[in-house]
# Entry
Amino acid sequence: MKPSTDKSPQEPAGASVRKTPWRRWLTAGGMVVAIFVVAGLIGSVVRAHKETQLAPPEGATGASALAVPQWGHAAVTLTVYEDMRDPATLAFENTYGATLRQLVASGVANVYYRETTGVDKAQGGSGSLQAGNALGCALDAKKFADYRAVLLNNQPTESDDAFGSDSHLITLAKKVKELDTDVFRACVDNGDHKVWVQDSNKAFTASNFGPGPVLTMLVDQTNTNEAQAQAIISSTLTLTPKQLQDRVLAAAVQATPTSADLPSVAVTNGATPTPAAAPTTPAPSLSASAKPAKAKKKPTASASPSLH
# Structure
């Protein structure tokens, strides 16, 4: 038998053994990558589902529970659309904050606060959204007003996205007694109320009131249709604090029922009711001690009403 003339090179013995570990690593590595990809996809789906299921903060009110109430049970409701990152919001607070608090304290008006994110869109970043979320977490703890004042007192320049840092927002919470808790921190870190802020901003944008801050007025306590609210202060509408007070007071007086507006009571014992027997509801008024105070340069937590 002639020897084989096949000159093709043959792999040396043990070559397959040397390649096997590499093949195993490549196979294992591919599996690891695949696992991470699948895990990432599952995680993104879970996060997306969670974000759409997040509930509004405890105590939120108004249409779709998008507002934060500072109120009693007045016939006039004022809504402030604000952005914690917007210097115009700080200017609004310095100009009208004391007047709004006095209107609430005197029972003349309810005041709602709605968070918006206009500066994030204009300047980039996420500080408006993050701060709004943190305010929702503060509302859960009944510390909204105090924490809002802290944020405004420590508002960065408009181009500085300092509020985009959760750790910074948590550090500021230390300035409010009993707010910096594990529950608050988890709420901020997890973005529990981001969807709430985003929904509020979408509704504000759809209202076509223009850029914030905006103050709207809705008369009639039973009317919750925000589409019927009228903007009374905006980028194109201005009032002095005294004009704001007078306008709201006039609306409250007009909306307050008198004895003539009350339903009649059927008489079953033959007695004739006298006018004095009919209950009356006094028209709201501002006491002398509730006249608008001069706005300070910066709002203070002690000047803000709380939701205890």
